[in-house]
Design a protein that fits this description.
single chain; GIY-YIG endonuclease; three-stranded antiparallel beta sheet
C-alpha cells in the first residue's frame, strides 16, 4: 500500500535577515514561489527565501499540530537547538 504524504510543514529562511518562517502547504515549490514573489503578507518584506527544512505527513491534522508546536516557545527552542 503506497503512503500518501501530501501535507508539508516547512521552515523557510530569509536571505536578507536570517528570519525564519514556519508554515503548512500541500505544494512546497509553489509555496516557496509565492513567498519569493511577495504574495505572502508576512514574508514579502524579507525576500528572498529558501526552504531549510520540511517534513511530510499523511494527515493534515497531524501536520497542522506539528506546525503549531514549531510556533510555540518549546518548538522555537527545538528549532534553534536542532536546525540552526
Amino acid at each position: 500500500m503506497p503512503v500518501n504524504l501530501k501535507h508539508f510543514i516547512y521552515i523557510a529562511k530569509s536571505f536578507s535577515n536570517q528570519e525564519l518562517y514556519k508554515g503548512y502547504t500541500v505544494n512546497l515549490d509553489e509555496r516557496l514561489l509565492e513567498h519569493n514573489l511577495g504574495l505572502s503578507e508576512h514574508t514579502k518584506k524579507y525576500r528572498p527565501w529558501k526552504i531549510v527544512f520540511y517534513c511530510a505527513f499523511e494527515s493534515k491534522q497531524k501536520a497542522l499540530a506539528f506546525e503549531k508546536y514549531l510556533k510555540s516557545g518549546s518548538g522555537r527552542a527545538f528549532i534553534n537547538k536542532r536546525f540552526i
